[in-house]
Amino acid sequence: MSKSLFDKVWDSHVVRHIEDGPDVLYIDRHLIHEVTSPVAFVGLESRGLSVLYPQRTFAVADHNTPTINQHLPVQDPLSANQLKTLENNANKYGISHWGLGHENNGIVHVVGPENGITLPGATIVCGDSHTSTHGAFGAIAFGIGTSEVEMVLTTQCIMQPKPKKMRISVNGALNKGVTPKDVGLYIISQLTTSGATGYFVEYAGDVFENMTMEGRMTVCNLSIEMGARGGMVAPDEKTFEYIKGRAMTPKGADWDKAMTYWETLKTDDDAVFDKELTFDASTIEPMITYGTNPGMGIGISKNIPSADSVEGGKATYDKSLAYMGYAENEEMIGKKIDYVFIGSCTNGRIEDFRAFASIVKGRKKADNVTAWLVPGSHIVEAKIKEEGLLDIFEAAGFVLREPGCSACLAMNDDKVPAGKYAVSTSNRNFEGRQGPGSRTLLASPLVAAAAAVTGVVTDPRELL
Amino acid sequence: MAYDKFTTLKSTVVPLPIENVDTDQIIPARFLKATKREGFGDNLFRDWRYNGDDTPKEDFVLNNPIYKGKILVGGKNFGSGSSREHAAWAVYDYGFRCVVSSFFADIFKNNCLNIGVLPVQISAEFLNEIFEATYADPSTEVEIDLNAQTITLLSSGSQESFAINGYKKDNMLNGFDDIDYLQNIKSEIETFTASRPF
């Protein structure tokens, strides 16, 4: 029977299928961080269980870490305790641990691919919904809850029914100033935040074939924002070139053997999807969100939609616009902003900083803007310096911080104050996501850069 | 962590007719710093429930003594966003055993099932009927029968059946969880591991 890429990877990991129940799914690689793992360790200890395959789990501190003065003790006692707990648990069970200050430290979804933890055809889970990022390599990767973290620690398996399959094709060429982030935000705006719930997505077509690995990671990362468990792209030459030689990728004969398998990882021509959607790349423009979920995005030149033109109830829509301090039919261009955040597992990779630099080069940060530039990892940070991007940022009045999740979820001190507007390259504009009362406009690194130098929402195409 | 068995539940409901309630609202990230599962119910819907100075927001439903019960009824696409199981813990620890909506986000639904909160998905029409009946009379009760897979609005007798797979249903009826199951097939898992290329 013909199979999709997703079928091939999922089916090869089913240890057992339960009639009228879930599949027991084998997990190749498990990422853990300080926030969603501690209770899982408490759970396994209370049951008297241990970690079955510690070499298949990788611990990284990222959610709750400061982005300045990382060499000093962490000030917040609760955060410090959580970081220490991760380290203790990792040491106790023989799990590798990349804590604060480790050269491989960074956001778990940035460092996984950088170090070859992420492989085509693998199943990868983490107690974090943006685990979907790793799908860019043709892996099945998705976020799980803490109960499931405990399951993976003790049995290397989780129990879930196989999702339905959706293929999203974007064909043609992207216009100038349109980035992978815009493609993601555009798709979510078309599907809404629940349009892909219950599905696993395969991204196909010209745009994804031509996209860099960094770009594919950005799009796959955003899969969860339309409700999908995950998204994936078939591995190709670009994928193999990216992973080859990284610390944890197979070497020598193991590499050759793996390649033979990886080259079979594509959807068969006559495979059937439960849902197929096709979009035309030329209709996508730089995107920005105006509301309180990632589906509330529009082309930057457009006006905020009226309540009667959007799906869903008016009460919810009105509540959302009231929170943002916006009204129906207003223009987004020219709206004053206070903060700019570039970083996160969505847009914290080297390509994103190159894009940001392409606009701020030779310009100055606007006086009314506080900007946080947070690399996704120490490896990204080193590249920023190596490529001379740091000089460009500093000349324009920006400061580079140290890696971590930072203002994406504002667990650390990087909080946008109540009522203030932030143009953010992260993934969620929920109420209070970037700090209690904060207002988030999600956008690409180019849109963030244009806002950072003008102080208002600006079409980046005018500055390119 | 084992939980109490779920068989039937008859209770008044707490109505929250907002759509796309995300897990950042259910429990904001700044309350995720614990290393034990304790006290999450206190911060359920923290920023909708309290002002910045920690005084209660009187217009929020959890602060309205008229509405109480073990069943939370939410708008469409309940539990979207972050995978934080803390959201399901907060719902459970506050005292809810069941969440009713016309649509659930995937991970939240799964997390609920894993900790003993029953997610019950019903039609938009029935959801609306429950909201209206509750606003007309907050003492209106809803009955959920897991074995029969039915939800009934007792004031009118309106009833719908809901879906749950047989495996999860059996788990909830008996208070079992997935780790109990997985531990029993460990040798099968170890054999499978030996066949993995990486």
Characterization of this structure:
The complex is a heterodimer of chains A (464) and B (198). Chain A is an alpha/beta fold and 464 residues long. Chain A folds into two domains: 175 residues, Aconitase, domain 3 (2-Layer Sandwich), CATH 3.30.499; 154 residues, Aconitase, domain 3 (2-Layer Sandwich), CATH 3.30.499. Chain A contains 16 helices and 18 strands. In chain A, β13 and β14 form a beta hairpin. In chain A, α13 runs parallel beside α16. The mean pLDDT of chain A is 97. The model of chain B has no long low-confidence stretch (mean pLDDT 96). Chain B is an alpha/beta fold and 198 residues long. Chain B starts with 7 loop residues before the first strand and ends with a helix. A seven-stranded mixed β-sheet of chain B has the order 4-3-2-1-5-6-7. Chain B has a single domain, classed as Aconitase, domain 4 (Alpha-Beta Barrel). Chain B is built from eight helices and seven strands, in the order βααβαβαβαβββααα. The interface between A and B is large, with 80 and 58 residues.
Mean pLDDT of chain B: 96
Shape of chain B: globular
* Structural category of chain B: alpha/beta
Terminal Cα span of chain A:
49 Å
Unreliable segments of chain B (pLDDT under 50, ≥5 consecutive)? none
Put the structure in a nutshell.
The complex is a heterodimer of chains A (464) and B (198). Chain A is α/β, with parallel strands linked by helices and 464 residues long.
